[in-house]
Amino acid sequence: PADCRSKEGKAYYEQYLKFCQLRQQLQNTIDNNRRLYSEVEDGNEQKIKIGKRIMQAEWNMLSLEEQIQICLQHLRQAEIPYLNTGL
Question: N or C: which end of the chain has fewer CB within 10 A?
């Protein structure tokens, strides 16, 4: 059983790291689109498209944050030593 918990913990930890990497990429996308949005003139069709991309990315970020919390919850429940890395 200890091996299973360790393997399970490792899988959750690896998933957590992937989610964190995705979160950073998504945040970069949001930041870049916000910058573009501020540079485009009001009333421009492009501004509407950029605004929609920002909203979609923010919704994706919320979903991703939920997944990260689920991973952390599983890691805490399994009392995995990975949590000592500052999570």
Answer: N
pTM over 0.85: no
**Tens-place pLDDT, residues 23-52:** 999 999 999 999 999 999 988 899 999 999
| Long-range pairs of 52-60 with CB within 8 A, sequence gap ≥ 24 | 53/29, 54/30, 57/26, 57/29, 57/30, 57/33, 58/30, 60/26
pLDDT, one tens digit per residue, over 62-73 is 999 999 998 888
